[in-house]
Structure formats: C-alpha cells, structure tokens
Write a structure and sequence with these properties.
The strands form 4 sheets. Strands 1-7-6-4-5 form a 5-stranded mixed sheet, with helices on both faces. A 4-stranded mixed sheet has the order 8-13-12-11, with helices on both faces. It has a two-stranded antiparallel ribbon with strand order 2-3. It has 350 residues and is α/β, with parallel strands linked by helices. Helix content is 38%, strand content 24%.
Length: 350
C-alpha cells in the first residue's frame, strides 16, 4: 500500500525577537553573575546559528518568575491554538476538510495536557466521531518523524484513509529562571516555539512524495543524554555534551544499513531532510557528507530563522522541499534524533 505526504504547513506563535534583541534580557537575568560567565552566555547565544526565535510568551514573561502551573496553562491555551492553525493550513493546502481525516496524531513533549490536544482539535473542528487518536509524548526532538512513522504504518494497513500528524512545541515554557547550568543556557540559546502539521494519505489518486521505508534506531545505554526532569519548577532540560560524539559514532550504522535494505546508498539520496538539533550537530553531520557533495542548507536555514522547535522542526524542513518543484524519482532521507537515545528515519521518493 502506497503512502504519500500530501501537504505540510506550519504555524508560529505571536511573539518574536532576534538574538540581538534578546541580549538585554540576558543582562537582567544574569545580573549578579560574574562578568566572565555573562560574556560566555552571550557568546553561546550569538554563536548558536539562530537569528530569530518565536515564543508563546513575550520575553518579559519568559524572564519573569512564574510557576509550572502558570507556564503549563499558557502552553495548553497557545499550543492548542497553534495546533489548530497548522492543521487548518495543511488541510487548505491539500484541499481537504476536517472530516476527511481518519487518524489524528498529536506530538509534543514541552507541556502536559490530559485530555491530549487531539481531543480539543476534534471538538473545535468537528472532525469525524470515529477518528482514531494517538498522542505521542516523551519522545522529544525525534517525535516529528516518529509521528509520521506511526501514521505511515496505520495508513499502509488501511487503503483510502488520511492521517494528520500535528507537532506542537514550546521549549520556552521549560526555561528555568533559577537554573544557570549549561543545559538550561544552551537550550535557551538554540530552542524556539512552533507547530507544524503533515497530512499523509493512502489514496492512490493523492499526490506527494511516497514513503518507501521507515525505521527507528535505538542507542544502548544512552538514556542519560537528552530529555527532561520533572521538577517543582517545571520540565528541566537534560542535554549531555556527549550527544554529538554519540551521533558521530553511530552515524554509519544509522544511515547505511537502512538505505541498503532498499538497494540504495547515500550517493542515491538527492535531498537530506534533517532535524536541526543545533549548530554543532549540523556541522558534524555536514562534515560526514561533504565528500559526497551533500549539503544541509535547508536544515541550517530553518535553524537560523526559527531555532530548534523540538519535534516540529523537521516538518519545517520538509515543508521547504514540498513547496519546491522536485522532479519525479528524486529521493530524500528524513532523519531526527531524540531522547532514548534514538534516531528516526524515513525514506522518500517523489
């Protein structure tokens, strides 16, 4: 059963600042810290490869002491609004109605909602009453590809159905005002808020790149590398300095056997649709491909314009490719990394 990606659309929160506009807020936040430390933090922001970030909160609110409950309530309200916006935008791109969706998969790790976001969207848009719901949580940055992977498996077993994968993230809602650790600082420097929706279809008549294959790859004994700790102040970022080294050590095993199962090599891949985890990881991955003439320009541009929006970010990269006129037969490789530690892969063909 052929499964295609029909459309991808994004939605952005109302608050936005450039990196240069955020620096004065850092001065206020870091007041009382040693000058050398302040300069180091500012340099991390300036060298993050992010020119602009979007947020569900204004910077004044981000850098104000608020409770976990207050931040999570904003996440619920604004996240649901963004989820609806990107879903409606994707439906419009695909010339579909809300009732044309048979499976709804919502993806997020930066807040807590019970019932999950899909329930609110079903009510607001009056979607099918027998629609199948799947909330995907606790998978971090990898979950955008994970959600598409689950949608593909659902659709492959069900002809003439469609699925919406909606990724909504607000890393700024996890910023810890009293935490001056490197994971909290690096997270604040590279992350931003955003949402995106991908619509997948098992209708033969629907257009879009076909998913030829999909797999997960799990790193052993690496659960400490990335994630969140649930504290009284909210979700506290866990981000180990070993992440780039672990990715480099496993990269060949992640990419080459997966492609070989489809009688392909990396030379056969025309487009790299990679999640922009951060500047270090992008530079690392790009260095592994430079001898093959491959590049990550779209990944770098998404990071520059929006920052890392966790699970939603890879869909921003994918949208850039879907908005192009790509000749039939061209192939693309989607890749993202996340807590576990794990890598998620999808092979596409236009």
């Amino acid at each position: 059963m052929s499964v295609k990606i029909q459309a991808v659309a994004k939605a952005l929160p109302p608050y936005t600042r450039t990196t240069q506009e955020i620096l004065p807020f850092l001065d206020l936040w870091l007041s009382g810290q040693e000058d050398r430390f302040v300069r180091k933090v500012k340099k991390i922001f300036e060298n993050a490869g992010v020119d602009r970030r979007y947020s569900i909160m204004g910077p004044e609110e981000v850098f104000t002491k608020t409770s976990f409950e207050e931040k999570n309530n904003i996440y619920i309200k604004e996240g649901t609004r963004l989820g609806r916006q990107c879903l409606e935008a994707a439906l419009e791109k695909a010339s579909l109605r809300p009732t044309d969706i048979d499976f709804i998969i919502t993806v997020s790790c930066t807040g807590i909602m019970i019932p999950s976001m899909d329930a609110y969207l079903i009510n607001e848009l009056q979607m099918k009453q027998d629609i199948v719901r799947l909330p995907v949580t606790e998978m971090g940055c990898a979950a955008g590809v994970s959600g598409m992977l689950y949608a593909k498996k659902m659709l492959a077993a069900n002809p003439n159905k469609r699925a919406a994968v909606i990724a909504v993230e607000s890393p700024t809602a996890t910023f810890q005002l009293d935490d001056y650790s490197m994971p909290n600082i690096v997270s604040a420097a590279i992350f931003g808020d955003g949402a995106a929706c991908a619509i997948l279809s098992s209708y033969d008549t629907d257009k879009g790149p076909e998913i030829l294959g999909e797999e997960m790859y799990h790193f052993y004994d690496a659960d400490h590398l990335m994630g969140f700790q649930l504290t009284n102040g909210g979700l506290k970022m866990v981000l180990d300095v070993e992440v780039p080294e672990k990715i480099e050590a496993h990269f060949g095993d992640i990419v080459h056997p997966f492609l070989a199962k489809h009688q392909l090599s990396i030379e056969d891949i025309d487009h790299l649709i990679f999640h922009p985890g951060g500047r270090k990881i992008i530079n690392l991955v790009e260095s592994l491909f430079v001898s093959m003439g491959k590049q990550l320009d779209d990944t770098k541009e998404v990071l520059r314009q929006y920052g890392n929006m966790s699970s939603a970010t890879v869909l921003y990269v994918l949208e850039r490719f879907l908005d192009q006129e790509i000749p039939a037969g061209k192939k693309g490789l989607m890749l993202s990394f996340g807590p576990g530690f794990s890598a998620q892969r999808i092979l596409l063909q236009w």
